[in-house]
C-alpha cells in the first residue's frame, strides 16, 4: 500500500480523546474539525519542561529523496509509548511547495505516519497562509510608503531588502519588477519572492516565546535605509501589531496523532538549508510540558538542521537535548560511497564501507556538542543483512549503538529496539549538551567554527559583497547574533557534487541576509537560493482526486 492509502485506511481517534491522554481538558482545545486542534499557551509549565527529556532526531547527509527522519521520529515516538513511556512527537509542518514538487510531504511514511495525513500536507490549520499574509502585509506597507510622496520615513527603494512570500516552488518569482504600469501603480523597483518556509516571518514564528515576544520580533525586522542612510525596521512602518494580529492563531501549536493514536504536535516549518529547519520553540516547550519524552527532528543532514537546532534554537528556547539520534540508510551510504543514482538500490559492501565516512563525520560532530549519538538504521527492502551487519560493526568500532528500525513496515513495534537504545543513552548520563560557539564571538569566527568543525572545511572565503555586508552588520550592532548558514543539503561543502566526507575544500560566503527580527545572521554559501524550483517531473502530475474527494498520489 502507498503511504496515503495506509493513512486513509487508518482508524482515527477524535482529537478530544488524544487530548485526554495528555490530561488536556476539552474546553482547552480549539478544534479544526474532528481530528486536529490548536492548544492554548497557558498549558506551558516551566517545571515540567525542566524535568522532561528532549530527543533530537537528525541524519547523515541525505540523498535527494531523503532518508526518513520523520518516519523514524514517528516510529520512535510510537515505540516509546509501547514501552509505557509518556512520549510526544513534536515535528514541523510540511510546505506545499515540496509536496507538489519532488520531496513530498512531511508526515512520515508507511506505518509510522501522522494523521490526518492529507490535511497536514495541504492547508492544515492555516499557519502557512497566516505567515504568508503577514509577510506580504509588510511588503505592501513598504511599497505604500514608497508610493506616498511625503511619507515621513523617506525610505530609499534601492535599499529595500524585504521580499514577498508564497508557499510554492516557483523559480520565476526569484527576481521580479514591481510597480509597472505607471505612477499610479507605485514605485517601480526590483523585488522577489522567497518560499514561505524561508520567510523571516516563519523563522520568527518558530522562535517566539509569547504573543508579546512575537510582536517585538516582528517589529525588529530590518527593511532597508532612508535616504539619509538610517536603518528602517518594520516597527518604523507601524507594521508589527497588524502582522501579529494575522499570526495570533498561528502561534498556537497544533495537536494531531500518529497511526497508533499517540499524541503529536506539529507546528512551524522552516527549511534547514535556507532557514533554521526546526519546529517552533513553543511546540517543543509545549511537548515538554505535556509529556516525559519529546521526540523532535531537525531538517536535512546534521550539518544543517541539527547544527542550527543546537547552536541557535537551544539558545533562544533554553533547551537541552538529552539524546541525539542519527538516521542512516544503506542507500545513502552507497550514495556517499560513489554509487550512481541507478545503483543506489544495488547491494555493495565496498560502497557502504566507503560511504561510512560521511556518517562517521556526523558522529564526530554530535560529540562536539557533548552528545553521544544513537544510529537508527532506517530499513529499506533493498538492504541486505550483510550490509546492515557491516554498518553495525563500523558503528560499534566507534562506540556507537546502531539499531535497525523497521517502523515504516511495522510501526511502533519496529522501533521498540531503537526506543530502548535511546532510553539507555539518556539513563547512561554521558550526554552533556554544550553549544559549539559563543554568540558574542566575531561573526567571522563563528562562521569559521561551523565551517571547520562541522563541515570539515579548510577555510572560508568572502566575496566583496559579503565583506560589505559584514561592515553593515557591524555598523548596525548585530555582530552578536548567532549564525544560520544557508548551504546545499547535498554535501558537507557548498558544492553539492562533493559527496562522502570531502576534505581540503573551502566554502564561500556570497552575501549575508539579515534576520534581525528572528535574531540571526544568514550567510549565503555558494549558489544557495531561498526560492526553489520544480523538477522536470513535478509530483503534482501524479496526483488525482475522484468525485468523492478521495486523493491519490500524495506522499
Task: Describe the protein's architecture and organization.
- The chain is an alpha/beta fold and 555 residues long.
- 35% of the residues lie in helices and 17% in strands.
- It has 19 helices and 23 strands.
- Strands 1, 2, 3, 4, 5, 6, 13, 14, 15, 16, 17 and 18 form a twelve-stranded mixed sheet that branches.
- A hairpin with a 5-residue loop joins β11 and β12.
- The radius of gyration is 23 Å and the shape is globular.
- The mean pLDDT is 95.
Which characteristics define this entry?
three-stranded mixed sheet; Formyltetrahydrofolate synthetase, domain 3; 17% strand; 35% helix; alpha/beta; 19 helices; 555 residues
Give the gist of this structure.
This protein is an alpha/beta fold and about 550 residues long.
How is this fold's topology laid out?
Layout: H1 3-9, H2 15-21, E1 30-31, E2 37-38, H3 46-51, E3 53-59, H4 69-82, E4 87-91, H5 96-100, E5 108-109, E6 112-115, H6 117-121, H7 127-147, E7 164-166, E8 176-178, E9 189-191, E10 193-195, H8 200-207, H9 211-219, E11 222-225, E12 231-233, H10 240-247, E13 254-258, E14 263-266, H11 281-290, E15 293-297, H12 302-317, E16 321-328, H13 330-336, H14 349-368, E17 374-378, H15 385-397, E18 402-405, H16 407-410, H17 416-427, H18 443-455, E19 459-462, H19 464-475, E20 506-515, E21 520-525, E22 544-545, E23 551-552
Parallel strand pairs: 3-15, 3-16, 4-14, 4-15, 7-10, 16-17, 17-18, 19-20
Antiparallel strand pairs: 1-2, 2-13, 5-6, 6-13, 8-9, 11-12, 13-14, 20-21, 22-23
Helix pairs in contact: 4-17, 7-8, 7-10, 9-10, 13-14, 14-15
